[in-house]
Amino acid sequence: MTGQEITTVKKDVVVTMDYSLVVEGSEIDSGPIQFLHGHGNIISGLESEVDGMQLGEEKEIFVESENAYGTYDPEMEIEVPLSSFPEDFEIKLGHPMRLQDGQGRVYTGVAMAITDEAVTINLNHPLAGKNLHFKTKVTNLRPATQEELEQGRLGDACGSCSTGDCSDC
């Protein structure tokens, strides 16, 4: 791909796309996004619809929940004893919180109910069970670097460094 101008979204191309996301009639997100196409860096329903778009092309894309964040699973609503939380841990109804299980895995959940003994936590993604409506425009395309291809995504290995020097992470 070196030396060629890329005009079509395809695998191993870095895509910059302006978008707005509407869920249940309300815009909940917008802005530019940049991703390595064909590597599962965005939801599958959006990635498959963007495939083949041309530089400068605009497209409205509807993604069913099954191809976005999945269906809502009531079994992902769990009850956790209050005694499992540190004494100084603040639990706010309706607010996301990061939780860690006994094996060290980290989850994000939202407290749905609190009693004297337990907290009911929803571990579903906030957009689970929701159909998504995107308005998109491809604004830039470029070949991926060898490092991006090896990692299967954009950015450095630690994912949170702006300098590329992970010793600061």
The total domain count is 2
Q: Return the CATH class of the largest domain.
A: Alpha Beta
Task: Note poorly predicted spans.
Answer: 157-169
Number of H- or I-type helical stretches: 2
* Strand order in the largest sheet: 2-1-8-3
Report the mean per-residue pLDDT as an integer. 90
Shape: elongated
CATH architecture of the largest domain: Roll
Helix-strand makeup class: mainly beta
Helix content: under 10%
Percent strand: 35-45%
SSE order: EEHEEEEEEH
CATH fold naming of the largest domain: Chitinase A, domain 3
**Ends: how far apart?**
33 Å
Number of strands: 8
Radius of gyration (Å): 20 Å
Q: Report the major sheet.
A: 4 strands, antiparallel
